[in-house]
Design a protein that fits this description.
This protein has 12 helices and 7 strands. The chain is α/β, with parallel strands linked by helices.
Amino acid sequence: MQLGMIGLGRMGANMTARLDRDGHDVKTYDPGVPSTAETLEELRDQLDAPRAFWMMVPSGKITEDTFQALLGLAASGDAIADGGNSNFRDSQRRHAAAAERGMHFVDVGTSGGIWGLKEGYCLMVGGDDEPVSRLEPAFLSLAPPDGYAHVGPSGAGHFVKMVHNGIEYGLMQAYAEGFEVMERSEFDLDLHEIAGIWRYGSVVRSWLLELLHAAFEAEGSHLEKIKGYVEDSGEGRWTIAEAIAEDVPVPVITAALFARFASRQDESFAAKVNAALRNQFGGHAVKAAE
């Protein structure tokens, strides 16, 4: 099939390469790298109607600006797919805005990271049946066998991807805590070796564990070259907000998000308050600030 890929970063470039490999006709636009088109208007003119545009750009303002630009230049019957990590409420809004102009909007939750070119991308797709069916050849090329599903109506794809990333936070934090317990223990443990054997037969084996083993192999068992500063891209926060709205307890995901917050503090003011209080009521010693 033919489509226009907007955004050729780590994900968009690899997705384009995987689609090319399967014989799809992919036109491209990214102002920062060589592309088939120098503007969105030129990209539009390179595509046959009804067109399919695929946005693979950072969530937030860039996605919104790109979507609004496409609304202004695309035609009735054209489809816009968003493969980034947008909030599902924004996707529902964009679906409604596109429908007012006779266009289609499809939200594509995409997981696979930099390994997607080789391994394929897990695709969680939300939207109306007609545009999803039209884009399905691309979905099937991008996903590994059994790695794609049309999970529901508009917003469902990004909602499922949001929860997926919330779960990811919890899994990563559990590995992080367990390996820290081992790293600080009285035993001289080879964490690289342990991560390696856990990949085979262990009930905690997973792709994340394979990636951790690779990280130890590249950086050493104590990860000396890496600063313990962990960002978040928003999906964990959104998952927790939806859980609160649904009265669903998510203590693991919440704790994992807060652990990321803590990782960014050079020194915790809350910890200072705790130390001061212990000193006040119990005379416990405090350490002087350096």
